TrEMBL record:
Protein name stated in the entry: TIGR03085 family protein
Organism: Streptomyces calvus
InterPro entries tied to this protein: CHP03085, DinB/YfiT-like, Maleyloyr_isom
Length: 211
């Protein structure tokens, strides 16, 4: 596992363990138990995980999720902490590097920011750059449902176009916060929105970001 992905994985496991199975998360309708089951299914049941993206597999995913959600919570935490099995594509360093940094960062914040007393973490520049690199690659996918033009901007001026159109809303923040915004956690992301007031309101109300 890559250094960043491993760190976020272990932090997520620790947070889930401390929070307990019934703790809320930023994933609408999911408790910590549901989130833990999702992480485990994604890595250990590729035959079902495809249902996250392919509608025809959704019913299979639902059945497998129910099966894993029913497992002892401590077992789910152990499976997250120990990492993917050797046969999983996520066990490959390159796949882990590409896929899991954002996955585990977002879900770590799903647990952290569901608490009323949360504060932003200070993340090192290397990690911020890694998050930005992945956001640049996926920005148009994440923003495809935006009701307005959408530009994501770092404080240093680097930008990524998430959706072409007018009027344009520019969202400024650290890459970590922009990732959360793009992945549908708009209410918890520490960002600034600039543009036409009606367009900003429309973007905030739409909820059409993320996958």
């Amino acid at each position: 596992m890559s250094t960043h992905a491993k760190r976020e994985r272990l932090l997520l496991a620790d947070l889930l363990e401390t929070a307990g199975p019934d703790a809320p998360t930023l994933c609408e309708g999911w408790t910590a138990r549901d989130l833990a089951a999702h992480v485990v299914v994604r890595e250990r049941r590729p035959d079902a995980a495809g249902g996250m993206l392919v509608k025809q597999l959704a019913s299979r995913l639902e059945r497998v999720m129910a099966e894993f959600t029913a497992k002892p919570y401590e077992e789910l935490i152990r499976l997250i902490r120990s990492g993917p099995p050797r046969f999983s594509p996520f066990a490959l360093k390159q796949v882990d590097e590409l896929s899991n940094i954002v996955e585990f960062y977002v879900h770590t914040e799903d647990v952290r920011r569901a608490r009323p007393d949360w504060t932003p973490r200070e993340l090192d520049r290397v990690f911020q750059d890694a998050l930005w690199s992945r956001l640049e690659r996926s920005a148009r996918l994440m923003g495809r449902g935006a009701p307005t033009g959408l530009v994501l901007r770092r404080p240093d001026g680097q930008t990524a176009v998430a959706h072409r159109g007018t009027p344009v809303v520019t969202v400024t923040g650290e890459p970590s916060e922009l990732v959360l915004f793009a992945y549908g956690r708009q209410s918890a992301a520490k960002v600034e929105l600039d543009g036409d007031e009606n367009a900003i309101a429309k973007l905030r109300e739409s909820g059409q970001l993320g996958i």
